[in-house]
Amino acid sequence: MANYELRCRECGKSWGNQPRSICDDCFSPLEVFYDYQAARGKFTRERIAGRAPNMWRYAELLPLPENFEPRTPTGFTPLLHAPQLAPRLGAKSLFLKNDAVCLPTLSFKDRVVAVALAQAKNFGFDTVACSSTGNLANAVAAQAARHNFKAWIFIPADLEPAKILGTQVFGAKLVRISGSYDQVNRLCSQIADERNWGFVNVNLRPYYAEGSKTVGFEIAEQLGWRLPDNVVVPMAGGSLIVKIKKAFNELIELGLVEPKPVRIFGAQATGCSPITTAIKAGNRDIEPQRPSTIARSLAIGNPADGHYAIKTITESGGWAEDVSDPEIVESIQLLAETEGVFTETAGGVTVGCARKLYKQGRIQPGETTVLCITGNGLKTTDVLQGKFDAEEPIRPKISEFASYLQRTADAAVGEIPEVVEA
Amino acid sequence: MNITVQIPTALRRHTGGTAQVNCSPTNLGELFSILDQQFPELKPHLRDEAGQVRRFLNVYVNEEDIRFLGGSAYAFQDGDEVLLVPSIAGGAC
């Protein structure tokens, strides 16, 4: 017997375990509920410490089939101390949860897909599918290849080339849709209605979304089984931020961390900010927007978990901010230059919003704050086009290098480095 | 004036299996009244106790979210195709 089941988040009706995301009675989303008593005594710091460094070390609190054997070491990405970025934001105790290096496709989406495909196999699907703004497409395509599923991926036609190529290379069937992500998403819910496919973010969504909790479990474990004061999380559909909070609550429930209020902060791009707009206006629900931002992985104008994201943030005493496209690019560069972490646009959104939150005094410098970096910069290099001069090549001669130094020093601020004997 | 309404699978058990409805409402309120009359069992699934459209039900007209068209103020046009779709999440974070 599984120690988890699907229940309606609103009316509480139990749906057992099946590929389904919506309560037929009230149309509300389903959520995985656990029997925490069953996990007590098994899900302990000591036991977890003895397990391999990947997300499967938290198996008791993931909705996995009983005989599931993981084949990919997803998760357990570094929690980096960020002493150089900190002063630039006005922070003193700053950490980066770096899912730019999550395996196998360099975004936090690998976590959710790993759980979804475990259930896809369990439910007997031979085909998996998703609607995606790119990172999910990569994650589904790669893991489908590894686990021997056929994959159908639906994306907005104008996605970044690296995300398109990084899907096709795995042999997935890619369908480009002329429209926004929200339109792709709506189409997929209709396709899912007609075909017996495991849509990771439609009929497998309750299981899929649980994978996000591992970000929260890892943050706590990597801080030495302690909760941070604040987390700053990028928001698209609004699911990750809700699940990080759920993870913290579960660790408290099972006694792995001391109870402590953690303030949850959300980050969006100004060009697609339905959740931050609602929070700033004091609304409980979002108004859909038509996205226009370079942060395409966050460009969801009608976030399905928006309502819960708003609730999570406001109940925690947090806040939400948004940043413009130029601020996103500047923040990508700031993070790269200070900490050597190259993130995609969503990470730029997180860093840029964190800077605003410190400036506004909503986050205090001395508090322990974790920024969630969810994706890799190599996938969105197009936003840096024109940011750097194309360097003229020089001939391989030492005198050429000397005159190159002279030229560049004359042209810019640079100092000519002294020649010292080696 | 005639519009068609597509009923998603999840709701068809309340419509006796009917997948498509043709009717002539002028706006969303009227459309719901027509559906209420035709399928009394459907009503509580489309609206909450206060009579509001359920939070997680999205209404599309010709592939556009009705909220972009004025919501309940939108006047249906002849030939409009209406979709009732549960809101689902995906994409990024």
Compact summary:
The complex is a heterodimer of chains A (422) and B (93). With 422 residues, chain A is α/β, with parallel strands linked by helices. Chain A is built from 15 helices and 13 strands.
Distance, first to last CA of chain B: 42 Å
Identify the CATH homologous superfamily of chain B.
Beta-grasp domain
Which structural category fits the helices and strands of chain B?
A: alpha+beta
Number of distinct helices of chain B: 2
- What is the number of beta strands of chain A? 13
**Kindly state the mean pLDDT of chain B as a whole number?**
88
By DSSP, the count of extended strands of chain B is 5
- Beta-strand portion of chain A reads 5-15%
Most extensive interface, chain pair and sizes: A-B, 57 and 28 residues
Structural class of chain A: alpha/beta
Strand order in space, largest sheet of chain B: 2-1-5-3-4
- Cα-atom radius of gyration of chain B: 13 Å
Q: Report the biggest beta sheet of chain B as strand number plus sense, adding barrel if it closes.
A: 5 strands, mixed
CATH fold category name of chain B: Ubiquitin-like (UB roll)
Chain oligomer state: heterodimer
Rg of chain A over CA atoms, rounded to whole Å, is 22 Å
**CATH 2nd-level architecture of the largest domain in chain A:** 3-Layer(aba) Sandwich
The coarse silhouette of chain A is globular
Helix content of chain A: 25-40%
Describe the structure.
In chain A, the strands form 3 sheets. Chain A has a 6-stranded mixed β-sheet with strand order 4-5-13-10-11-12, with helices on both faces. Chain A has a 4-stranded parallel β-sheet with strand order 8-7-6-9. Chain A is built from 15 helices and 13 strands. In chain A, 37% of the residues lie in helices and 15% in strands. Chain A folds into 2 domains: 79-105 and 212-384, Rossmann fold (3-Layer(aba) Sandwich), CATH 3.40.50; 109-210, Rossmann fold. The mean pLDDT of chain A is 95. Chain A has 422 residues and is of the alpha/beta class. The radius of gyration of chain A is 22 Å and the shape is globular. In chain B, a hairpin with a 2-residue loop joins strand 3 (57-61) and strand 4 (64-65). Chain B has a single domain, classed as Roll (Ubiquitin-like (UB roll)). Chain B starts with a strand and ends in a 7-residue tail after the last strand. In chain B, 33% of the residues are buried. The mean pLDDT of chain B is 88. Helices cover 16% and strands 23% of the residues of chain B. A 5-stranded mixed β-sheet of chain B has the order 2-1-5-3-4, with no helix packed on it. Chain B has 93 residues and is of the alpha+beta class. At the A-B interface, helix 7 and helix 10 of A face strand 3 and strand 5 of B.
